[in-house]
Amino acid sequence: MALPLVQELIFGLVLGSFIALGAIGFTLVYGLVNMINFAHGEFVTVGAYVGLIAAQFLGLPFAVAVVAALAVTAVFGWGVAQVTFEPLNDAGAVPLLLTSIGVGLILRNGIRLAAGASPQYIDTTRPTPYRFEELGFFFTDQQVFIVAITVVAVVALHLFLNRTMIGVAMRATSDNEDLALVTGIDTRRVRHVVWLIASAFAGVAGILLAVSRSANPSLGFGQLLLVLTAAILGGAGSPYGAVVGSYILGIGISLAIAFLPTGVSEFGTTMAFVVLIVVLLVRPGGIVNQEVRHS
Protein backbone atom coordinates (compact mmCIF):
# COMPACT_ATOMS: atom_id res chain seq x y z
CA MET A 1 0.00 0.00 0.00
CA ALA A 2 1.38 3.39 -0.97
CA LEU A 3 2.23 5.70 1.90
CA PRO A 4 0.41 9.05 2.00
CA LEU A 5 1.93 12.17 0.50
CA VAL A 6 2.87 13.64 3.90
CA GLN A 7 4.91 10.54 4.73
CA GLU A 8 6.83 10.81 1.46
CA LEU A 9 7.46 14.50 2.13
CA ILE A 10 8.97 13.58 5.51
CA PHE A 11 11.25 11.03 3.86
CA GLY A 12 12.17 13.65 1.27
CA LEU A 13 13.06 16.23 3.94
CA VAL A 14 15.39 13.74 5.63
CA LEU A 15 17.05 12.78 2.34
CA GLY A 16 17.29 16.46 1.39
CA SER A 17 19.02 17.19 4.71
CA PHE A 18 21.75 14.63 3.99
CA ILE A 19 22.23 16.07 0.52
CA ALA A 20 22.23 19.69 1.75
CA LEU A 21 25.03 19.17 4.28
CA GLY A 22 27.19 17.70 1.53
CA ALA A 23 26.14 20.17 -1.17
CA ILE A 24 26.90 23.29 0.91
CA GLY A 25 30.56 22.36 1.28
CA PHE A 26 30.82 21.25 -2.33
CA THR A 27 29.37 24.49 -3.67
CA LEU A 28 31.45 26.69 -1.32
CA VAL A 29 34.62 25.15 -2.73
CA TYR A 30 33.30 25.58 -6.26
CA GLY A 31 32.35 29.22 -5.74
CA LEU A 32 35.45 30.37 -3.87
CA VAL A 33 38.21 28.02 -5.00
CA ASN A 34 36.75 27.62 -8.51
CA MET A 35 37.20 23.88 -8.35
CA ILE A 36 34.92 20.85 -8.76
CA ASN A 37 36.12 18.65 -5.92
CA PHE A 38 35.33 15.03 -6.67
CA ALA A 39 37.11 14.04 -3.45
CA HIS A 40 34.38 15.77 -1.43
CA GLY A 41 32.52 12.48 -1.06
CA GLU A 42 35.53 10.97 0.69
CA PHE A 43 35.45 13.82 3.23
CA VAL A 44 31.89 12.67 4.00
CA THR A 45 33.19 9.12 4.46
CA VAL A 46 35.94 10.34 6.81
CA GLY A 47 33.28 12.06 8.92
CA ALA A 48 31.31 8.81 9.09
CA TYR A 49 34.29 6.83 10.38
CA VAL A 50 35.35 9.52 12.83
CA GLY A 51 31.81 9.47 14.20
CA LEU A 52 31.92 5.68 14.34
CA ILE A 53 35.17 5.70 16.33
CA ALA A 54 33.98 8.43 18.67
CA ALA A 55 30.50 7.06 19.37
CA GLN A 56 30.97 3.32 19.00
CA PHE A 57 34.54 2.58 20.09
CA LEU A 58 35.26 5.45 22.49
CA GLY A 59 31.71 5.51 23.87
CA LEU A 60 31.39 9.29 23.68
CA PRO A 61 27.92 10.89 23.79
CA PHE A 62 26.49 11.30 20.32
CA ALA A 63 26.54 15.10 20.48
CA VAL A 64 30.27 14.96 21.28
CA ALA A 65 30.77 12.50 18.41
CA VAL A 66 29.12 14.97 16.02
CA VAL A 67 31.49 17.73 17.17
CA ALA A 68 34.44 15.33 16.80
CA ALA A 69 33.39 14.40 13.26
CA LEU A 70 32.99 18.08 12.40
CA ALA A 71 36.38 19.11 13.81
CA VAL A 72 38.50 16.17 12.64
CA THR A 73 37.03 16.19 9.13
CA ALA A 74 37.53 19.96 8.88
CA VAL A 75 41.23 19.61 9.68
CA PHE A 76 41.56 16.52 7.49
CA GLY A 77 39.96 18.17 4.45
CA TRP A 78 41.99 21.34 4.94
CA GLY A 79 45.19 19.28 5.19
CA VAL A 80 44.41 17.31 2.02
CA ALA A 81 43.72 20.56 0.18
CA GLN A 82 47.00 22.13 1.30
CA VAL A 83 49.02 19.12 0.14
CA THR A 84 47.23 18.35 -3.13
CA PHE A 85 44.99 21.15 -4.44
CA GLU A 86 46.49 24.44 -3.29
CA PRO A 87 49.88 23.86 -5.01
CA LEU A 88 47.92 23.45 -8.27
CA ASN A 89 45.79 26.54 -7.74
CA ASP A 90 47.23 28.33 -10.78
CA ALA A 91 47.29 25.25 -13.00
CA GLY A 92 43.68 25.65 -14.13
CA ALA A 93 40.38 23.88 -13.67
CA VAL A 94 41.15 20.67 -15.57
CA PRO A 95 44.31 19.70 -13.60
CA LEU A 96 42.46 20.40 -10.36
CA LEU A 97 39.50 18.32 -11.50
CA LEU A 98 41.69 15.36 -12.47
CA THR A 99 43.67 15.67 -9.25
CA SER A 100 40.49 15.61 -7.17
CA ILE A 101 39.35 12.43 -8.95
CA GLY A 102 42.71 10.82 -8.17
CA VAL A 103 42.72 12.01 -4.56
CA GLY A 104 39.19 10.69 -4.09
CA LEU A 105 40.20 7.29 -5.46
CA ILE A 106 43.27 7.13 -3.21
CA LEU A 107 41.28 8.13 -0.12
CA ARG A 108 38.46 5.71 -0.88
CA ASN A 109 40.79 2.75 -1.29
CA GLY A 110 42.89 3.87 1.67
CA ILE A 111 39.80 3.84 3.87
CA ARG A 112 38.86 0.42 2.49
CA LEU A 113 42.30 -0.95 3.38
CA ALA A 114 42.27 0.59 6.84
CA ALA A 115 38.66 -0.11 7.87
CA GLY A 116 37.64 -3.02 5.65
CA ALA A 117 34.94 -3.16 3.02
CA SER A 118 32.13 -4.31 5.29
CA PRO A 119 29.62 -1.75 6.57
CA GLN A 120 29.90 -0.85 10.24
CA TYR A 121 27.06 0.42 12.38
CA ILE A 122 26.77 2.90 15.21
CA ASP A 123 24.66 1.53 18.04
CA THR A 124 22.31 4.24 19.16
CA THR A 125 19.08 4.11 21.04
CA ARG A 126 16.29 2.86 18.82
CA PRO A 127 14.50 5.80 17.17
CA THR A 128 11.25 6.68 18.89
CA PRO A 129 8.37 6.84 16.39
CA TYR A 130 5.55 9.37 16.70
CA ARG A 131 2.55 7.98 14.86
CA PHE A 132 -0.49 9.83 13.58
CA GLU A 133 -2.67 6.86 12.68
CA GLU A 134 -5.65 8.94 11.59
CA LEU A 135 -3.57 10.88 9.11
CA GLY A 136 -1.52 7.86 8.07
CA PHE A 137 2.02 9.10 8.70
CA PHE A 138 4.76 8.99 11.31
CA PHE A 139 8.17 10.44 12.04
CA THR A 140 10.95 9.52 14.44
CA ASP A 141 13.05 11.54 16.82
CA GLN A 142 16.09 10.59 14.72
CA GLN A 143 14.51 12.12 11.61
CA VAL A 144 13.67 15.28 13.54
CA PHE A 145 17.27 15.45 14.78
CA ILE A 146 18.69 15.11 11.26
CA VAL A 147 16.49 17.89 9.87
CA ALA A 148 17.05 20.09 12.94
CA ILE A 149 20.84 19.81 12.87
CA THR A 150 20.77 20.71 9.16
CA VAL A 151 18.65 23.79 9.88
CA VAL A 152 21.01 24.82 12.70
CA ALA A 153 24.02 24.37 10.41
CA VAL A 154 22.44 26.46 7.64
CA VAL A 155 21.49 29.25 10.07
CA ALA A 156 25.00 29.21 11.55
CA LEU A 157 26.50 29.49 8.06
CA HIS A 158 24.14 32.38 7.20
CA LEU A 159 25.16 34.27 10.34
CA PHE A 160 28.83 33.57 9.64
CA LEU A 161 28.61 34.84 6.05
CA ASN A 162 26.70 37.98 7.00
CA ARG A 163 27.83 38.91 10.51
CA THR A 164 31.59 38.24 10.49
CA MET A 165 34.41 40.00 8.65
CA ILE A 166 35.78 36.77 7.22
CA GLY A 167 32.28 35.81 6.07
CA VAL A 168 31.87 39.11 4.23
CA ALA A 169 35.35 38.62 2.76
CA MET A 170 34.26 35.19 1.50
CA ARG A 171 31.24 36.67 -0.24
CA ALA A 172 33.35 39.42 -1.80
CA THR A 173 35.91 36.89 -3.01
CA SER A 174 33.16 34.73 -4.47
CA ASP A 175 31.77 37.70 -6.39
CA ASN A 176 35.12 38.94 -7.77
CA GLU A 177 38.44 37.61 -6.48
CA ASP A 178 40.54 40.20 -8.33
CA LEU A 179 38.52 43.06 -6.88
CA ALA A 180 38.73 41.46 -3.45
CA LEU A 181 42.53 41.39 -3.73
CA VAL A 182 42.62 45.06 -4.73
CA THR A 183 40.54 46.02 -1.71
CA GLY A 184 43.00 44.31 0.61
CA ILE A 185 41.20 41.05 1.32
CA ASP A 186 43.57 38.19 2.14
CA THR A 187 42.13 35.69 -0.34
CA ARG A 188 44.59 33.01 0.74
CA ARG A 189 43.15 33.19 4.26
CA VAL A 190 39.67 33.05 2.77
CA ARG A 191 40.57 29.83 0.96
CA HIS A 192 41.84 28.30 4.20
CA VAL A 193 38.52 29.07 5.88
CA VAL A 194 36.54 27.72 2.91
CA TRP A 195 38.30 24.37 3.08
CA LEU A 196 37.73 24.15 6.82
CA ILE A 197 34.00 24.97 6.58
CA ALA A 198 33.35 22.78 3.53
CA SER A 199 35.07 19.79 5.13
CA ALA A 200 33.29 20.39 8.45
CA PHE A 201 29.88 20.24 6.73
CA ALA A 202 30.95 17.02 5.01
CA GLY A 203 31.93 15.56 8.39
CA VAL A 204 28.51 16.28 9.88
CA ALA A 205 26.84 14.74 6.82
CA GLY A 206 29.04 11.68 7.25
CA ILE A 207 28.17 10.91 10.87
CA LEU A 208 24.45 11.45 10.25
CA LEU A 209 24.58 9.06 7.29
CA ALA A 210 26.52 6.54 9.39
CA VAL A 211 23.86 6.63 12.10
CA SER A 212 20.88 6.27 9.78
CA ARG A 213 22.56 3.78 7.43
CA SER A 214 26.13 2.56 8.07
CA ALA A 215 29.76 3.61 7.68
CA ASN A 216 31.40 2.06 4.62
CA PRO A 217 34.21 3.11 2.27
CA SER A 218 31.82 4.13 -0.54
CA LEU A 219 29.36 6.04 1.64
CA GLY A 220 30.38 9.53 0.51
CA PHE A 221 31.11 8.55 -3.08
CA GLY A 222 27.58 7.18 -3.31
CA GLN A 223 26.23 10.60 -2.31
CA LEU A 224 28.41 12.58 -4.69
CA LEU A 225 26.06 12.53 -7.68
CA LEU A 226 23.18 13.79 -5.53
CA VAL A 227 25.42 16.49 -4.03
CA LEU A 228 26.61 17.61 -7.46
CA THR A 229 23.07 17.66 -8.86
CA ALA A 230 21.74 19.65 -5.90
CA ALA A 231 24.57 22.19 -6.21
CA ILE A 232 23.91 22.72 -9.93
CA LEU A 233 20.14 22.74 -9.45
CA GLY A 234 20.49 25.48 -6.85
CA GLY A 235 23.10 27.42 -8.80
CA ALA A 236 26.72 26.33 -8.48
CA GLY A 237 28.60 28.50 -6.02
CA SER A 238 25.52 29.52 -4.01
CA PRO A 239 25.16 27.82 -0.59
CA TYR A 240 21.55 29.02 -0.30
CA GLY A 241 20.72 27.67 -3.74
CA ALA A 242 22.38 24.36 -2.80
CA VAL A 243 20.09 24.04 0.22
CA VAL A 244 16.96 24.68 -1.85
CA GLY A 245 18.19 22.39 -4.60
CA SER A 246 18.91 19.63 -2.08
CA TYR A 247 15.40 19.63 -0.64
CA ILE A 248 13.81 19.79 -4.09
CA LEU A 249 15.93 16.82 -5.14
CA GLY A 250 15.30 14.87 -1.94
CA ILE A 251 11.53 15.35 -2.06
CA GLY A 252 11.48 14.70 -5.80
CA ILE A 253 13.28 11.37 -5.41
CA SER A 254 11.02 10.30 -2.54
CA LEU A 255 7.87 11.13 -4.49
CA ALA A 256 9.19 9.41 -7.59
CA ILE A 257 9.99 6.23 -5.68
CA ALA A 258 6.55 6.30 -4.08
CA PHE A 259 4.33 7.09 -7.01
CA LEU A 260 6.10 6.00 -10.18
CA PRO A 261 5.78 2.40 -11.39
CA THR A 262 8.17 0.00 -9.68
CA GLY A 263 10.29 -0.54 -12.77
CA VAL A 264 10.90 3.20 -13.06
CA SER A 265 11.29 4.06 -9.37
CA GLU A 266 14.11 1.50 -9.02
CA PHE A 267 16.26 3.93 -10.96
CA GLY A 268 16.23 6.56 -8.24
CA THR A 269 19.85 7.60 -8.75
CA THR A 270 19.34 7.73 -12.49
CA MET A 271 16.67 10.34 -11.89
CA ALA A 272 19.36 12.59 -10.43
CA PHE A 273 21.12 12.40 -13.79
CA VAL A 274 17.86 13.29 -15.53
CA VAL A 275 17.40 16.31 -13.26
CA LEU A 276 21.02 17.34 -13.82
CA ILE A 277 20.73 17.22 -17.62
CA VAL A 278 17.36 18.98 -17.69
CA VAL A 279 18.63 21.80 -15.45
CA LEU A 280 21.76 22.29 -17.54
CA LEU A 281 19.66 22.42 -20.72
CA VAL A 282 16.78 24.57 -19.49
CA ARG A 283 18.33 26.80 -16.81
CA PRO A 284 22.13 26.45 -16.62
CA GLY A 285 22.27 29.01 -13.83
CA GLY A 286 20.03 26.93 -11.57
CA ILE A 287 17.54 28.40 -9.13
CA VAL A 288 19.67 31.45 -8.30
CA ASN A 289 20.63 31.81 -11.97
CA GLN A 290 24.37 31.55 -11.37
CA GLU A 291 25.82 30.09 -14.52
CA VAL A 292 28.12 27.12 -14.00
CA ARG A 293 30.45 28.00 -16.81
CA HIS A 294 30.91 31.63 -15.69
CA SER A 295 30.99 31.39 -11.92
From TrEMBL:
<keyword id="KW-0813">Transport</keyword>
<dbReference type="InterPro" id="IPR001851">
    <property type="entry name" value="ABC_transp_permease"/>
</dbReference>
<feature type="transmembrane region" description="Helical">
    <location>
        <begin position="267"/>
        <end position="286"/>
    </location>
</feature>
<feature type="transmembrane region" description="Helical">
    <location>
        <begin position="53"/>
        <end position="81"/>
    </location>
</feature>
<keyword id="KW-1003">Cell membrane</keyword>
<keyword id="KW-0997">Cell inner membrane</keyword>
<keyword id="KW-0812">Transmembrane</keyword>
<comment type="similarity">
    <text>Belongs to the binding-protein-dependent transport system permease family. LivHM subfamily.</text>
</comment>
<dbReference type="GO" id="GO:0005304">
    <property type="term" value="F:L-valine transmembrane transporter activity"/>
</dbReference>
<keyword id="KW-1133">Transmembrane helix</keyword>
<feature type="transmembrane region" description="Helical">
    <location>
        <begin position="93"/>
        <end position="111"/>
    </location>
</feature>
<feature type="transmembrane region" description="Helical">
    <location>
        <begin position="193"/>
        <end position="212"/>
    </location>
</feature>
<keyword id="KW-0472">Membrane</keyword>
<feature type="transmembrane region" description="Helical">
    <location>
        <begin position="243"/>
        <end position="261"/>
    </location>
</feature>
<dbReference type="GO" id="GO:0015188">
    <property type="term" value="F:L-isoleucine transmembrane transporter activity"/>
</dbReference>
<protein>
    <submittedName>
        <fullName>Branched-chain amino acid ABC transporter permease</fullName>
    </submittedName>
</protein>
<feature type="transmembrane region" description="Helical">
    <location>
        <begin position="144"/>
        <end position="161"/>
    </location>
</feature>
<dbReference type="GO" id="GO:0015190">
    <property type="term" value="F:L-leucine transmembrane transporter activity"/>
</dbReference>
<feature type="transmembrane region" description="Helical">
    <location>
        <begin position="218"/>
        <end position="236"/>
    </location>
</feature>
<keyword id="KW-0029">Amino-acid transport</keyword>
<dbReference type="GO" id="GO:0042941">
    <property type="term" value="P:D-alanine transmembrane transport"/>
</dbReference>
<dbReference type="GO" id="GO:0015192">
    <property type="term" value="F:L-phenylalanine transmembrane transporter activity"/>
</dbReference>
<feature type="transmembrane region" description="Helical">
    <location>
        <begin position="9"/>
        <end position="33"/>
    </location>
</feature>
<dbReference type="InterPro" id="IPR052157">
    <property type="entry name" value="BCAA_transport_permease"/>
</dbReference>
<dbReference type="Pfam" id="PF02653">
    <property type="entry name" value="BPD_transp_2"/>
</dbReference>
<dbReference type="GO" id="GO:0015808">
    <property type="term" value="P:L-alanine transport"/>
</dbReference>
<dbReference type="GO" id="GO:1903806">
    <property type="term" value="P:L-isoleucine import across plasma membrane"/>
</dbReference>
<dbReference type="GO" id="GO:0005886">
    <property type="term" value="C:plasma membrane"/>
</dbReference>
